[in-house]
Write a structure and sequence with these properties.
Shape: globular
Low-confidence stretches: none
Order of helices and strands: EEHEEEEEEHEEE
Number of domains: 1
Number of strands: 11
Helix content: 10-25%
Distance between the termini: 26 Å
């Protein structure tokens, strides 16, 4: 399916690799170029400058974001790929035993209702130590929630706020908050077959 055309909107793909799983996982979100003057290099600099290790406290230590793909949606354009400058800020910290299909979920909330105005990130490879009977480590959920909230504010201050893009409506809606869910979720496509 072709990407939608949305002015001043960039698609951001976080490409994860887990050394134990030997597979990739991808998270997709969007950013808005609030002033219409940015480019992929400036957006990656903002991402690299504001992502923190506390955002990934529940992911296993063998998992990390190894590549960030950024695509401008205003016109058909090529994707630009970047390697994070500070790998430690993009690496899990939860332990060494991943649950292959286990995820933590971060919900992207906006001020507008409806499917086209919300999103989710299924953060891959929860460490076994970070959950008990499906309930995630409460202290790390609180710390990660604070890190995601700070990331949202910092990206907005850098004039590249996080948004939810709708292919159906060819529009984007600014994210007003992140909600880090306290329960282990399943992403079946990531399970071994």
């Amino acid at each position: 399916m072709p990407l939608p055309t949305i002015a001043n909107c960039y698609q951001v793909k976080l490409i994860w690799v887990d050394a134990l799983e030997q597979r990739q996982a991808t998270n997709v979100f969007h950013v808005s170029d609030a002033v219409g003057a940015g480019d992929e290099v400036a957006i990656m600099a903002a991402l690299d400058g504001h992502v923190t290790a506390n955002m990934w406290l529940l992911q296993c230590t063998t998992a990390s974001v190894v590549r960030v793909d950024i695509t401008y949606l205003g016109i058909p354009s090529a994707t630009r790929s970047f390697t994070p400058v500070t790998p430690a800020h993009w690496t899990g910290a939860g332990g060494t035993d991943p649950i292959p299909q286990g995820c933590s979920v971060v919900t992207l909330q906006t001020a507008t209702r409806g499917k086209s105005h919300r999103g989710r990130l299924y953060l891959p490879w929860i460490a076994e130590l970070e959950q008990t009977a499906g309930l995630l480590n409460g202290a790390n959920v609180i710390t990660s929630q604070a890190a995601w909230t700070a990331f949202l504010a910092a990206m907005s201050a850098a004039a590249v706020p996080i948004s939810v893009a709708s292919a159906k409506l060819s529009s984007q809606t600014l994210v007003t908050s992140f909600l880090y869910r306290p329960y282990l979720k399943t992403q079946r496509r990531r399970a071994r077959r």
